[in-house]
Write a structure and sequence with these properties.
Layout: H1 4-18, H2 22-29, H3 34-41, H4 47-59, H5 71-76, E1 85-86, H6 91-100, E2 109-110, H7 123-132, E3 140-143, H8 146-154, E4 158-162, E5 176-178, E6 184-188, E7 194-199, E8 204-208
Parallel strand pairs: 1-2, 3-4, 4-5
Antiparallel strand pairs: 6-7, 7-8
C-alpha cells in the first residue's frame, strides 16, 4: 500500500502540536517504528503514550491511502503460506490499512508490537522468516525504505527496492530496484520451488527460491 501522504500528514500534525521540527521527523520516519522515531526526535516526551496516539490517528486516517498498482496481482500469484507482511506499523494500523485497501491480511504479520528492535535491525525480518518456516537466505523482501532494506540485508535476505516512497537513488543497497510491482513476476512448477523474475531499473535479474 502507498500511505506516504497519510504518514506525512499525521506526523507533521503531531510535530506541530508538540513543537518538534517536522522536517527532522520526516527525514527518519518512513520504515521506522513510531516509538523509535519519537525517542530520537523528542526524547523529553513519553514515547509509549505518543506512539499510541499517532498510530491510532493513522489507523483512522485513510485519506490518500491506496493500493499500489500490481500489488493484488502479485499477492495472488504467490501460494498461501509463502508470503507475509513485516511492517514498522502496529498490528492495529497494518490491519486497518490492509482491510481498507481490500488486500488479504496474511497469516504471517510481524508488526511493531512483536519485536524489541525495529528496522533497520534484522529482528523483524528474522521473525518473519521463522513464522513462515524458511531460512533467511531463502527469503526475498520487497522494501520501499532504506531502513527496511538494511534490515533485510542484515538478516541475510535478498531485497528488491521499490521506488515509491523514496527515489531509486536512495535504494542502492537493494539487490535490484523496480519502479513498480508489476515488474515482479512469480511462477512455480506446482511443487515447492518458486521462481521470481525481475525486470529492474538497476539490473535485469532472475532470483530463484531454492524451496
Amino acid at each position: 500500500m502507498d500511505s506516504t501522504r497519510a504518514v506525512d500528514r499525521e506526523w507533521r500534525e503531531w510535530a506541530r502540536r508538540k513543537g518538534v521540527d517536522g522536517d527532522a521527523v520526516m527525514a527518519i520516519a518512513h520504515g521506522v517504528r513510531t516509538i523509535e522515531v519519537i525517542r530520537r526526535v523528542a526524547p523529553h516526551l513519553d514515547a509509549d503514550v505518543e506512539a499510541w496516539e499517532i498510530e491510532n490517528e493513522e489507523a483512522n486516517d485513510q485519506q490518500g491511502v491506496r493500493v499500489m498498482p500490481g500489488a493484488a496481482a502479485l499477492l495472488n500469484s504467490i501460494p498461501e503460506g509463502r508470503w507475509g507482511v513485516v511492517t514498522s506499523g502496529t498490528r492495529l494500523l497494518a490491519s486497518a490499512r490492509l482491510q481498507f485497501c481490500g488486500l488479504p491480511v496474511p497469516k504471517v504479520l510481524v508488526t511493531a508490537d512483536d519485536v524489541e528492535h525495529g528496522k533497520p535491525h534484522p529482528e523483524p525480518y528474522l521473525r518473519g522468516a521463522a513464522k513462515l518456516g524458511f531460512e533467511p537466505k531463502d527469503c526475498l523482501v520487497i522494501e520501499d525504505a532504506p531502513a527496511g532494506i538494511r534490515a533485510a540485508r542484515a538478516a541475510g535476505m535478498k531485497v528488491i527496492g521499490l521506488a515509491s516512497t523514496y527515489p531509486a537513488s536512495k535504494l542502492g543497497e537493494a539487490d535490484a530496484v523496480v519502479a513498480g510491482l508489476a515488474q515482479i513476476q512469480v511462477s512455480g512448477d506446482g511443487g515447492a520451488k518458486l521462481s521470481l523474475s525481475v525486470v529492474a531499473a538497476k539490473a535485469d535479474s532472475s532470483l530463484v527460491s531454492p524451496r
